[in-house]
Amino acid sequence: MAATRTGAAELGFAEAAPAWRLRSERFPSKVGGRPAWLGEAGLPGPAELACALCGRPLAFVLQLYAPLPGRADAFHRALFLFCCRAPPCCAGLRVFRNQLPRKNDFYSYEPPSESPPTEMGESVCLQLKSGAHLCRVCGCLGPKTCSRCHKAHYCSKEHQTLDWRLGHKQACTQSDNLDNTVPDHNFLFPEFEIVIETEDEITPEVVATDESEITGSIGKESLQNFSKGSGPIPGRRLLRKKPFIWEFIGMRQEAGLRSFSLAQGSAGILRGFSTGFF
């Protein structure tokens, strides 16, 4: 049985939201869809986002915007969770962290407006401002290109084949309109915003303390139902922001995943992604 915890607690609820609220410049916490990358440099590549068991590309599950108060180098901070959707794996959980100081090369020093933008822009953004191209299927780095049009980018041969079969074969000659012809590949999880709310107290019924209880909730029931497009996790309670992060770190470390850093900026400020300590 879980013990009662006193004091304020943060809960995350999966809610429908307009697409503009889930873009990178809004610093969203969200589940499903394509990742809204925080930094545009040093993103994890195909090798880091491949399942260690079957080698297939991992699917984006969720991201949490979790800045660290008092840490100038983590004024903006996000955690990204990926998993393998291919049977019999359906696991292969992997977490990446990205953090930036308030003054950085990607975002305004001032907080974003809460109002909708006057120009909505493209429905699917497949190229970052840094110039990096993203995979048409999963939204991760896409170093491979279609050998015919050289304008469609992919993270892997598997995703290129999937996109070719589901529509790029016909749209390949219409290379000027590729971003508007991205089909539903049935690879991404349904997309929702994670709305964080505070409770005064977590009761025993909503606190998980056993790692097997967390694993069962994430890997065997919730993700399976969620992957079928059934919407938010039952009861609308998706996760607890801070407790979830630290409990998952324990799971990851016990699994023996190695820590690594892909990019590091000057003066020790971490500008890339890592699966090291959070």
State the main characteristics.
278 residues, alpha+beta, eight-stranded antiparallel beta sheet, two-stranded antiparallel sheet, 10 strands, 17% helix, globular, disordered C terminus
Report on the structure:
A hairpin with a 7-residue loop joins strand 6 (144-145) and strand 7. The strands form two sheets. An eight-stranded antiparallel β-sheet has the order 9-1-8-2-3-4-5-10. It has a two-stranded antiparallel ribbon with strand order 6-7. The model is unreliable at 211-224 and 232-278 (pLDDT under 50). With 278 residues, the protein is α+β, with helices and mostly antiparallel strands. It is 17% helix and 20% strand.
In short:
The protein has 278 residues and is α+β, with helices and mostly antiparallel strands. The chain has helices at residues 157-171, 211-227, 241-254, and strands at residues 5-15, 30-31, 59-65, 76-83, 94-100, 144-145, 153-154, 192-202, 237-240, 273-274. The strands form two sheets. An eight-stranded antiparallel sheet has the order 9-1-8-2-3-4-5-10. Strands 6-7 form a two-stranded antiparallel sheet.
Helix segment tally: 3
General shape: globular
Distance linking N and C termini: 28 Å
Could you estimate the helical fraction of the residues in percent?
10-25%
How would you state the average pLDDT, rounded? 74
Rg for CA atoms: 19 Å
Low-confidence stretches: 211-224, 232-278
Biggest sheet architecture: 8 strands, antiparallel
